[in-house]
Automatic annotation (TrEMBL):
It holds the Pfam family PRMT5_C. InterPro entries: Arg_MeTrfase, PRMT5_C, SAM-dependent_MTases_sf. It comes from Phaeocystis cordata. PANTHER family: PROTEIN ARGININE N-METHYLTRANSFERASE 5. Keywords: S-adenosyl-L-methionine. The keyword S-adenosyl-L-methionine applies. GO terms for cellular component: cytosol; nucleus. This is PRMT5 oligomerisation domain-containing protein. The keyword S-adenosyl-L-methionine applies. GO terms for molecular function: protein-arginine N-methyltransferase activity.
Length: 169
């Protein structure tokens, strides 16, 4: 996603921890640079559950993601981070979604999550490929995300070991 206004608001907070924290936010002044794709998938009840309130169930995830900018819209741009969306099949064909393609009508209270890059990346005209590695990590009482841009340039991992943020469980 390119979103200079949002990235500048986060950068203005002046501390690394703010650039390593994802934000649930309504994206206004932004442009999606590529189609979104499924990252993590969960099923409930979890078939790995051992009947002990889910103890021992591994909910950590890793995905190596590849995005391709469309040829028809591949001018110069700046990659400020990534937008994440949520979709849930509650039962049968009952769907709750904030994905642009399947957004549930009249659902205004859920927003995308913005994963900022510490250092935005200039995308040359014609630069189509964007790759990022994404982890969902957890410890006994917390869960967090880590991610690292792999292409068009490699960048260090963001939020390693949950150093800047983690959600308490």
């Amino acid at each position: 996603v390119t979103t200079s206004k949002l990235h500048e608001e986060v950068r203005a907070l002046k501390k690394l921890k703010h650039l390593e924290t994802p934000y649930v936010v309504k994206l206004f002044a932004h442009k999606l640079l590529a189609d979104n794709c499924r990252v993590f998938h969960f099923e409930h009840p979890n078939s790995q559950a051992d009947g002990n309130n889910g103890d021992g169930v591994d909910n950590e995830r890793f995905e190596a993601l590849r995005y391709e900018r469309p040829k028809s819209d591949c001018g110069a741009s700046i990659l400020h981070g990534f937008a994440g969306y949520f979709e849930s099949v509650l039962y049968g064909d009952v769907l709750l979604s904030i994905r642009p393609e399947t957004h549930t009508p009249n659902m205004f209270s859920w927003f995308p999550i913005y994963f900022p890059l510490v250092h935005p990346v200039y995308l040359e005209p014609g630069q189509r490929e964007i790759r990022v590695n994404m982890w969902r990590r957890s410890a006994r009482h917390k869960v967090w995300y880590e991610y690292a841009l792999a292409c068009p340039v490699m960048q260090p991992m963001v939020n390693p070991e949950g150093r800047s943020y983690a959600a308490e469980l």
